[in-house]
Amino acid sequence: MWTPSPGRRVVSAPATLLLRLLLLAGAADAAPPLVGVSPHDEPYFTTQVIACRDGSGSFPKSRLNDGYCDCADGTDEPGTSACPEGKFYCRNNGDTPRLLFSSFVNDKICDCCDGSDEYESGILCQNTCQNRKDIAEDDVGVHELSVTRLDATNEFTRKHTINVENLVHNSINKDLIQKLRGLRTALVIELGLVVGMFAFCIARRRSRTRKRQHILKR
């Protein structure tokens, strides 16, 4: 019968499995998913303590994409909408990468053609990225950060701005209607005052004429 030597230690199968699960859990906690981060920026988030790009402070790696804004410039929340100044990177494999404003993340509208911006919104985005071979790549074979910036005339933001434009248009119309109503009321009041003063002047003049005639008859 074989017996283990004193210098060796036997670990049971359940203990080994438990150890592996603990290691996997620890690795998951130590390395949160780099959602919304461009391939060029991935090395920046490898350290356990990460500095805010604007120099305002730092944060532990466990707070990366945790839904709370620790950096004013959104360095710690590239994959959420927690920071107003944050930007979300759409990889769009096979198509042109894009940067989104953080407010577009998980807003139930598919902005990235790969649908990566709606990973927690509960909707299913179809991958509409086109297989383009003319996208520039750097020496290590990673897509360059040549993204399309968002502006008011960009087709990419039109579906977001149209609702805002409608709201603004409706608001302007309501304000204009209210101003016109107020102006009409003011005109009616002024016209009433003018007519009243005119009638008062005529009545007063007639009253004086009658007094004069009465005096002359005496």
From TrEMBL:
UniProt entry keywords in alphabetical sequence: Membrane, Signal, Transmembrane, Transmembrane helix
Protein name per UniProt: Glucosidase II beta subunit N-terminal domain-containing protein
Record field: transmembrane: 183-203
Domain of life: Eukaryota
Classification via InterPro entries: Gtb1-like, PRKCSH_N
Species per Swiss-Prot/TrEMBL record: Urochloa decumbens
Signal peptide: 1-30
One Pfam family linked to the record: PRKCSH-like
Keyword Cell inner membrane: no
Domain Glucosidase II beta subunit N-terminal as annotated: residue spans: 27-169
